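worker-03 picked up job from queue 'complexes'. Input manifest follows; four sequence lines, order preserved.
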Amino acid sequence: MARPRTAARTVEHPDLSDVSLQQVLEALVDPVRRGLVLQLSRAGEDKSCGTFDAPVSPSTLTHHFNVLREAGVIRQYYQGTAKMNTLRADEMERRFPGLLSSVMTAATRSAAGVA
Amino acid sequence: MARPRTAARTVEHPDLSDVSLQQVLEALVDPVRRGLVLQLSRAGEDKSCGTFDAPVSPSTLTHHFNVLREAGVIRQYYQGTAKMNTLRADEMERRFPGLLSSVMTAATRSAAGVA
DNA sequence: GCCCGGCTTCGATGGTGGTCGTACTATCGA
DNA sequence: TCGATAGTACGACCACCATCGAAGCCGGGC
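worker-03 finished. Artifact:
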């Protein structure tokens, strides 16, 4: 059948009002996922899944991105074969003021070898 | 042997500089523990373990208090047969600025039935 | 001295989640 | 059309942790 050339696989994202504190904390409690968020935060621009540095296999990486997306922490979209990732920082700040930023601040410091 | 009348069982507390972000997040990710911290925060004064409202057995409660103490979130001391609990809010604020407060704010809102 | 209430320790158990490899799909470039 | 590259779906495995009940300890009050 004539599948349009611009198939543009889409990705489902939760409305942040449907995301619970529990979900966000569960997403951020895993050090690998915190690492991903941190890299995304530092990059200052969207990053494709493959450009992240993480000590896990590709399939595990997919799992972590799914968790982050379902927790409303990141937004994902396809760009060719690549799946791009963006932080939903502003929305998160509105939904859970200070939460993501304080975690990222603390994560940055520990990543800097301060402790 | 002549054990002093003021035996005063003591409790070990970590220096907050020895506490990692990971530990704190793991402590706060459990809803029961968040509930305990929230009740302590609201009380405005020290509370003994037995005065908390939690849907778990006494032995499990002990476990949760241990986790919170080892994560530096609370301070504990004996007062007769009771074990009292205090929030180490100020210290936590210095070690992880905004973290505990943002989690508590969010927890308060969800507890208020906002979502 | 004795008991009771408050909390702890211990061991067992069950569920959940992070991990992987394999096989698969989708897109792009030659 | 054929690879090659990017990421996914699935199933299995394993470790960890929240949970409990039973038994015990400790301090206070009678």
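worker-03 released lock.
Residues 1-7 of chain A have pLDDT under 50 and may be disordered.
The radius of gyration of chain A is 15 Å.
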